From TrEMBL:
Pfam families: Rieske. Residues 79-167 form the Rieske domain. Its cofactor is [2Fe-2S] cluster. It comes from Halapricum salinum. This is Rieske (2Fe-2S) protein. One of its GO terms (molecular function) is metal ion binding.
C-alpha cells in the first residue's frame, strides 16, 4: 500500500470514528426534542407537593414567595416541575387566568417554551430562563417580556381543597415546553 493510500484510509477511519462517537449523544437528544404527548400529568384533585413530597398547604407561602412543586406521584405519572407563586390577587392582570388561581396562588410550568430548559432565576418580579434568557411575568399569566420564548409558560388550574391543600383542577391550559405552540 502506498503512503498516500494509507493516509487516506487512516483519515477515513478517523472520520467514521468521529461520526460514530456523535451518534449516541444525538440519539439521546431525540428524546429531548421529540417528546411524545403521554396524556395529562396533572388532573382534577391531584395535590401539589414540594421536592420532598410534602403537600402544599394554603398558608405555605407569603406574598411574593415562590416554590417549585410537582404533582403528587402516582404510578405512571412523571414529575412535572411547576412554579408556584403567591401575590395579592389584585396584583394579577394581563394574561393571568384568574379562574385558575386560588388564594393569591398561581402555578405555571417551569419548562421554558423556547428550548425546554428549566426557568429558574427570579429577577425582581420576572422569571428568567438561564439558557437563552427568556423572561416571563408571573403576574401577567407568565407572559413573555423578553428573550426568544415564543409564548407564555402554560398556567395550571388550581384550587384549595376542603382540607386546606393546593390541588390541581385539571392539566396545563396549553402544551408544556418547546414546540407546543
Amino acid at each position: 500500500m502506498r503512503r498516500r493510500d494509507y493516509a487516506k484510509a487512516l483519515a477515513t477511519v478517523d472520520g467514521l470514528t468521529a461520526v460514530a462517537s456523535l451518534a449516541a449523544p444525538l440519539a439521546g437528544l431525540q428524546r429531548v426534542f421529540e417528546r411524545e404527548y403521554t396524556g395529562p400529568v396533572f388532573g382534577d384533585g391531584v395535590p401539589l407537593v414540594d421536592a420532598e413530597g410534602e403537600r402544599i398547604r394554603e398558608d405555605r407561602l407569603k406574598n411574593g414567595e415562590q416554590i417549585t412543586v410537582f404533582p403528587e406521584l402516582r404510578p405512571g405519572i412523571e414529575r412535572a416541575p411547576t412554579l408556584l407563586v403567591r401575590f395579592p390577587e389584585s396584583d394579577y392582570g394581563g394574561d393571568t387566568e384568574m379562574a385558575f388561581t386560588a388564594g393569591g396562588y398561581a402555578a405555571y410550568s417551569k419548562i421554558c417554551t423556547h428550548a425546554g430548559c428549566m426557568v429558574a432565576n427570579r429577577k425582581g418580579d420576572t422569571w428568567e430562563c438561564p439558557c437563552h434568557y427568556g423572561k416571563f411575568d408571573p403576574k401577567s399569566g407568565a407572559s413573555v417580556v423578553g428573550g426568544p420564548a415564543p409564548r407564555s409558560l402554560p398556567q395550571l388550574p388550581i384550587t384549595v381543597s376542603s382540607d386546606g391543600y393546593l390541588v390541581a383542577t385539571g392539566d396545563f391550559e396549553a402544551p408544556v415546553g418547546a414546540g407546543g405552540g
